[in-house]
Amino acid sequence: MTPTNMEHIKKLFIMPNSADKFHEFGNELLDLLHSFFTEKGGIHSSIQLGDLEKIFSNTEMPSKPQRLTEVLYEIKTKVIAHSVKVGNPYYIGHMTSAIPYFIILLEMIIAALNQNQVKIETAKASTFLEREFIAWMHRLIYQLPNKFYKKNIQSKDIALGNMVVDGTMANLTALLVARNKAFPETKDFGGVRFEGIHEAYKHYGYDRSVIFVSKRGHYSLDKVGRILGIGGNNVIKIPIDSNNKMDTKILEARCDEIEKANMAGGPRTKIIAIVGIAGTTETGNIDDLEEIGRIADKYGAHFHVDAAWGGSLLLVDKYRDMFKGIEKSDSVTIDAHKLLYAPPSLGMIYFRDGSDAKHLMHTSNYIIRKDSFDIGRFSVEGSRPFSSLKAWATIKIIGRNGFKLIFDHAFELTSSLKKIIVEHDNFEAMNEPELFIFNYRFIPKEVHEKIKVLRDRVSSAWANGECGKEVEKDAEELEKMNIVLNDLNIELHKSIREEDESFVSRTMFDIPKYFYQNCVILRAITINPLTTEGILNEIIEHQNELGMKIFKKHFARKFKKFKI
Amino acid sequence: MTPTNMEHIKKLFIMPNSADKFHEFGNELLDLLHSFFTEKGGIHSSIQLGDLEKIFSNTEMPSKPQRLTEVLYEIKTKVIAHSVKVGNPYYIGHMTSAIPYFIILLEMIIAALNQNQVKIETAKASTFLEREFIAWMHRLIYQLPNKFYKKNIQSKDIALGNMVVDGTMANLTALLVARNKAFPETKDFGGVRFEGIHEAYKHYGYDRSVIFVSKRGHYSLDKVGRILGIGGNNVIKIPIDSNNKMDTKILEARCDEIEKANMAGGPRTKIIAIVGIAGTTETGNIDDLEEIGRIADKYGAHFHVDAAWGGSLLLVDKYRDMFKGIEKSDSVTIDAHKLLYAPPSLGMIYFRDGSDAKHLMHTSNYIIRKDSFDIGRFSVEGSRPFSSLKAWATIKIIGRNGFKLIFDHAFELTSSLKKIIVEHDNFEAMNEPELFIFNYRFIPKEVHEKIKVLRDRVSSAWANGECGKEVEKDAEELEKMNIVLNDLNIELHKSIREEDESFVSRTMFDIPKYFYQNCVILRAITINPLTTEGILNEIIEHQNELGMKIFKKHFARKFKKFKI
Question: What is the structure's pLDDT at A86?
C-alpha cells in the first residue's frame, strides 16, 4: 500500500483493524532480526566507507511514497547488512555490547504508547514508574533510611534524579546545578542562572571559577565547561598516580593554592566542583572517592562522581567497597546504556539532596505548571521518551542476583585476559584493570626484553636523582622505541579491522609506567555475557599471528637499530 | 525462565536459537499493543494519581529475578492500562499525537542493531544514512544548489546539522554556536569556549550579551540562556503584535538603542542572536522571518529560527511561503517528534554554513578521532541512538506527497474548528490560527455580549486618547469579567478531564485583543490524521454542555453583578 490518498494515510496511523496485518509485518521483522543475530561472519560488513557514501548519497528527499515492504527490504540490505555487530562475543572493543533481547520488545511498547515524559498530561503511569526507578537507584548510591524513600519516592516537589539522554547530559546537569549553587540568589542579586556569569563574578568578587577532575576525566567534562560559560580551560586536570587514579595530594595542594591566593586579596577563583571518576573511560579505574569527598567538603565545592561506566556495580553488594565515598557525593552520573545493558542511550543523574533540583526548576503555563506532578519541571531536556521502562524492567527481569552473575562473569573475563596477556611472550599489560577495561599492546619478546632493561635503568637512575648524559640517552632511546611500537600497534589494529574476526579498540594516552609518554594501546572491554575465556584466547592468539607477520615484514629491522 | 545461573542469563542476551521463542513473545506483545489501540474507552485511565503513587511505591529494588511473562503482565496492567492515549483522535490537546504504526517496527530494528551514533566503530551504515537524511532536510530549508549537496552530503569535515534529543537541545546547540561565534578566538585570546564568558567580555570589551526572541518564545530559550552562562534575564522578550508575532519595529528599536549605547562609550552589550519563531508553542503563529533576518544581519547577530513546531511543513512546497526568510537564517530547529510524526523525542538542528560546526568540534583519542568519520565530533551529546532511521524511513514511506495530504487535512481541521467556534454562541476564538493550534474559550452568549460592549468602549476610548474615570471603570470591569471567565474555563477544563471523552489543553497568557490581559484559554492542536470534522463538532458540543452546566450552577450569579 502506498499512501496516495488520505484513506491510505489513515491506515498507516492506526493499528490495522485486524491484528493480522500488524502480525504479518511484525513476524517478518522478527525473522529478519533473528537472522541478523544468528548469522555467522564478520563483525563489520566488508563494505568500504566510500561505497557506503555512495549508497547514501541521494541528495534529494523522495516525493513519492514507497511501499512499507520495499522500505523494510532497503533497510535490510543497506542498513542492517552494514551495521556493526556490537553484540558479537568477539566484539570486545567498546562499552557498547550485547543487550538482552527482551529490550527489543520493550522498545515496541515504548513507541506504541508514545508517552512524553515532560508532563503528566502525556505521561501518566510512566511518570510514577520513572520516579520509582529513580528512588531505587538513589537508594543504591546514598543508602538513606527507608523512611526517607517512603516519604520521597513519589514526592513531586523534589527530584532525586533525572533520566537524561546520556552521560554528557548527566554531567551537564550535575555541573549546572553546581555552578548555580556556587553563585546563588541573594537579596540584591538574582543568581547566576538569571544574571549570568559575568554579573555573578562581580557580585561575589570572583574572577574565575574552576572544576577539578583527573587527567582521565571523560571528554564530556570539557564540553560541559565550554557550554556552561566557565570556559573549557577552567576544567582543570589533576595528574594521576601509577594506577590512573587522581593524585589527591596534588588536588589538595591546588585547592590550597587557590584558597591562599583568594585570601591574599588578588583575583579570586571559585572552586565550583570536584569530580571523582568511578570507572575511567580509558582504563576503568576508580578514584579515591572518599578522599576526594573530604577535599571537596574542606573547600566547599560540589562533589560530583562520574560513575557513567561503573555506577551500575552498586547493584551488587560485594562490589560496593570499590565505590567507598560515593555516598558522600552531591551528585552521581550513571549510564544505563553501559552496565545496565540498555541500548544507547540512557543517562541518569542522581542528587543526594533532592531539593538541589530547585537550581534547575522552571515552569511554564501551558505545560509543567508549578504545582503539577510534571517531571519536566526539573530537567534540562524538554520532550523525552519513556526510556525508564527499559531500565525498570531489566532490573525486574534480571534482578540484583542476576546482575551479580553478569558482573562476576565480567570480572572473570578481565582476569583471564590479563593472565593471557601477562603470560604471553609478545604482549605487555598497560594498566591494572579494575572495571572490565584492560589495556595492552603487542610487543615481540625481543623488543620487550630490550625495553624492560631501558625502562629499569632510567627508572632507577631517576629514582636516585641521576640526570647525566647517559640517563638522558637511555630515556631518549626508550621514547623512540615506544614511538616505533606505537606505529606497530596502529598497523596491527588496522589489520585486526581488516580481518574482522574480532574487535578491540585502540587509543593513545600517557602511560604511567613509561613516565607518562603517550603510548598506543589496545583496549579490551570484556562485559558481554556471551564472551568466554576460550574466545579471549582465540582473539589474542589471532592478534599475535597478525602482529608477528607485521613485525617481521616492516618492523623487525627498525628495532634492530636500538642498541642497549 | 528466571536467571538463576549464568546459562540462563546468557539466554536472555542472545536471540533464541530457534526463532520460535522470540516470535512467541513478539506475537504476545503485538496482540497486547493491538488491543491497547483498538480498545474503546477514556483517553486517560480513570485511576487517581494517588493510587498510581501507591502502585509505584516499592522503595527497594528487587533482588530476585522475575519471569519475563510476569513482567510483561505487570507492564500491561500497571503501565499500559494507565497510559494516556495520545493517539486517540479525540485527544487534540498537545503536540504529541498519533504515530504511524510502522514506527513500532522501526524501533525494534533500532534496538536490535544497538548502534551508537557517536562513532563509526559502533555505527557504520547508520552514520551515512544519518548524513543523507540531514542533507535532505538542509536542502528543504536552504535550497542550495544540487552541486553543494553532491559535494557535502557525506563530507566528514562539516556538519549540515545534528540529530539531537529534542528541541531544547537543538536550541541549545544553535545558541551555543552563536555565543561561540560572537566571541571567537584571536591571536591573544582562546575564544569564549575555552576562556569563558568573563574573559570574553574583558577581551572584547563587553559587559553583557543578549538574545532576542518574542514573548511567545519557547521556555527552552530561557533555559538555554541560563545554561550558557549569559543569564536567563538576558534572553529578552520582544512584545508581539495582535497576531502573536514579534513586533519587529520594537526589535529594531531595541537593537538600535543597544548600538547607540555601545557607541556612547558606556557599558557595552553584544547581541549574540535573534530568534524567529516558526510556529509558536502556544498559538502556532509564525514570525516575519524575512524582516527578522534583515535586522539580525544589520546588527551582526546570529539569526536562529525555532521551527520546532512548524519546520516540517517545508516538506510541502505550497506551504513554503509561510516561512519566507528561513533560508537566510544561520540555524534552524525542527522537531521530528512533532510534525514528522516520530515518537518523542527527536530534535534536529541545521546550520546554513556546515563549517559553523567547528565551533562545536571536539575530539578524543579513544573515539571521535580528529580525522575520523565520527559524527560525534560535532555534537553536544555523546552516546546517541540511531533515531534518524525513523525519520528517514517515514519520509520514504509517506513521501512528500503523503505529507501534503496529512498537512492539508490538518489545515482543514483547524479551519473547521475555528468555524465551529466562531459560529457557536457560547465560545470565543482567542487567536488567528496559522499552524494547527487554535485557542478559544467558553463564554456564554449573555456574557459574551456584555464583554464585547465593554471591550469596544475601552478600545475606542483608548484609541481616541481618552483616559478619564469612565474608561478606567470600564477597563476595570472588563478585567474583572475576564478573571471570572478564567475561573469558569479552569472549572470547565477540570470537568473535561474528569469526563475523559476528549482532551484539549489549557493555558493562560496575555491576549492581544484584551489589551494583553492574562486569559485562560483552551488550546486545540488538530494534527491527528484520524481526527475528523465530526469529531471536532462532538468535542465542542460536549464542552458546551459541560460549560453550561458549570455556568448555571456556579457562575451565572457572579456575572449578574457586572452592569454595563
Answer: 87
* Cβ <8 Å between B96 and A114: yes
The amino acid at residue A375 is I
Q: Which residue has the higher pLDDT, B45 or A539?
A: A539
CATH fold match for the domains A169-361 and A399-560: no
Average pLDDT of chain B, as a whole number: 92
Contact: B96, A122; criterion CB under 8 Å: yes
B427-429 and B347-351 as β-strands: parallel, antiparallel, unpaired? unpaired
Comparing alpha-carbon positions, the chain A residue that sits nearest to B24 is A27
Q: What is the 3-state secondary structure (H, E, C) of A509-525?
A: EEEHHHCCEEEEEEEEE
Q: Do A9 and B207 touch (CB under 8 A)?
A: no
Residues of A in contact with B96 (CB under 8 A): 114-116, 122, 383
State the smallest CA–CA distance between residue A275 and chain B in angstroms: 18
Q: Give pLDDT tens digits for B430-454.
A: 999 999 999 999 999 999 999 999 9
* Local confidence band at B19 (pLDDT 50, 70, 90 cut-offs): low
CA atoms within 13 A on the CB side of A492: 35
Q: Which of A160, A165, A169 is the best residue to mutate to test the B interface, defined by the most B CB atoms within 10 Å of its own CB?
A: A165
* Beta carbons of B174 and B349 less than 8 angstroms apart: yes
CATH 3.90.1150.170 fits B400-560, yes or no: yes
Q: Is B434 helix (H, G, I), strand (E, B) or coil?
A: coil
- CB contacts, 8 Å: A528 with chain B: 13
Q: In what order do the strands lie in the sheet with A505-511?
A: A427-429, A437-442, A517-525, A505-511
Contact across the interface for B65 and A396, Cβ inside 8 Å: yes
Sorted by where each begins, the domain ranges of chain B are 6-85, 169-361, 400-560
ipTM over 0.90 threshold = yes
Q: Report whether pLDDT(A344) > 90.
A: no
Q: A110 and A102 in contact (C-beta within 8 Å)? A: no
Q: Which of residues 306-345 of A touch B (CB under 8 A)?
A: 315, 335, 337, 341, 343-345
From CA A163, how far away is CA A117, in angstroms rounded? 10
Residue pair B235/B213 in contact by the 8 Å Cβ criterion: yes
| pLDDT score of A201 more than 60 | yes
Task: Say how far apart CA B516 and CA A402 lie, in whole Å.
Answer: 60
- Rounded to a whole number, what is the distance in Å from the CA of A457 to chain B's nearest CA? 30
For residue A85, is pLDDT > 90?
A: no
Whether residue B45 and residue A172 make contact (CB cut-off 8 A), yes or no, is: no
Choose which CATH entry (3.30.70.20, 3.40.50.300, 3.30.750.24, 3.90.1150.170) describes domain A399-560: 3.90.1150.170
Coil, strand, or helix at residue B306? strand
Angle between helices B248-263 and B289-298 (to 10 degrees): 10
User: Which conformational region is residue A376 in: left (phi greater than 0), alpha (psi within -120 to 50 degrees), or beta?
Assistant: alpha
Q: Do B232 and A193 touch (CB under 8 A)?
A: yes
Closest-CA residue to B252 (of B244, B264, B260, B263)? B260
Chain A contact for B135 (CB, 8 A cutoff): yes
Range A169-361 classified under CATH 3.30.830.10: no
Residue B328 dihedral angles phi and psi, to the nearest 5°: -95, -5
Assess contact for B124 and A44: CB atoms under 8 A.
yes
* Residue predicted with more confidence, B88 or A139: A139
pLDDT digits over B142-187, tens only?
Answer: 999 999 999 999 998 889 999 999 999 999 999 999 999 999 999 9
Give contacts of B 258-287 with A, CB under 8 A. Answer: 281-282
pLDDT at B214 over 60: yes
Distance of alpha carbon A242 from alpha carbon B334, whole angstroms = 48
The pLDDT of residue A371 is 75
